[in-house]
Amino acid sequence: MDAPCADPAGPTGRDPVPLTEPAEGVPPVVADPRALRQAAAALAGADGPIAVDTERASGYRYSQRAYLVQLRREGAGTVLVDPIALDGHLGPLVTALADTEWVLHAASQDLPCLAELDLRPAALFDTELAGRLAGFDRVALGTLVERMLGYRLEKGHGAADWSRRPLPPEWLAYAALDVELLLPLKDALERELAAQGKLEWALEEFEAVRTAGSPRPRAEPWRRTSGIHRVRTPRQLAVVRSLWEARDAVARQRDIAPGRVLPDTAIVDAALASPDSEAELTALPTFRGRAQRRMSGTWLAAIKEAKALRRTELPEATPPQDGPPPPNRWADRDPDAAARLSAARAALTTIAETNRLPVENLLLPDLVRRTCWQPPADTDPATVADVLRAGGARSWQVALAAEALANALRATAT
């Protein structure tokens, strides 16, 4: 599709053109091996990068699997693939997409579920990350398409239950539109990054996203239960943990989002009330419902298990620290570290503003905190650069930030 010319630094200067249907119509969903082979052959026979997107069922399902995969390549058009109907066997597509550059928006959200299907890019362009590096304040797909290409995408089904079958036609149109303009958007952002002298930075960032391993599981994920700040005692925390783990087991087994099995508010209410019987449990607001009454034996068993723990088995009132404490506690615990962090943040903010970058894209805040909390013995720029590289910073980030960070560490040394 030919996109209208746009001023990369701002709006096109005219009202955006609403885009409600794909230019070539909504293609039929690929849902059998024969159609998959035909679609894979068409993609393999076309040229250029491939736009890729997925639809998941977050908020409805426990798993983060892809329930629809959308692809588009110049010369092949748009392809919609149903990996559920194909039992996840996408071999012809894996072959067709090998050694190609993929274009995704917010790639880190989609790459894990694509990897589950054995789909992995040989090269990557992330339009959301490109927008951030270009200094744009708003980087949602629709916003970037409107800014760079002059079209307005119709949104509205991103949070739908994509595990539903059959998928409604209007959902399929929405899904197809998500890849309709990714390729011209990539071209426009690439030109903008090159004009700003940031294209090499972006390529490093894209490669880091492409090669990133699976995120490390949280040590105590149950501590992220919404409303847990109301829970004060270790025994109550044990109830939260036990109910969270029981809920997680049920959700995993049924492939239902945990919050649909039992809301976080109900877990916290039960921890505070500490019921001893099924009657006391089902007297609590959420547990009165028919579905929760059927599960009351499971929940009561989890509560009793927590109550039976020895004191030494109870969770700590505060989570174990993996790294520095929260910055708001630094001034009391280590005033020198607090001074280092303040100086470092000021220096990095100046660099980020000068280069029209979000400061968090200049250096990860966690890496800055760790470096300031426990700086190297030598705070010369070369040593600080080594510390940043060991922490995962890319070459362009080290080149921009190492000297300023070293100066901040030295300026506050006692």
From TrEMBL:
SUPFAM superfamilies: HRDC-like, Ribonuclease H-like. One of its GO terms (molecular function) is 3'-5' exonuclease activity. Residues 317-328 have a biased composition (Pro residues). GO terms for biological process: nucleobase-containing compound metabolic process. Residues 1-27, 310-334 are annotated as: Disordered. It holds the Pfam family DNA_pol_A_exo1. It comes from the Bacteria. Residues 233-313 form the HRDC domain. This is Ribonuclease D. It comes from Gandjariella thermophila. The lineage of its organism: Bacteria, Bacillati, Actinomycetota, Actinomycetes, Pseudonocardiales.
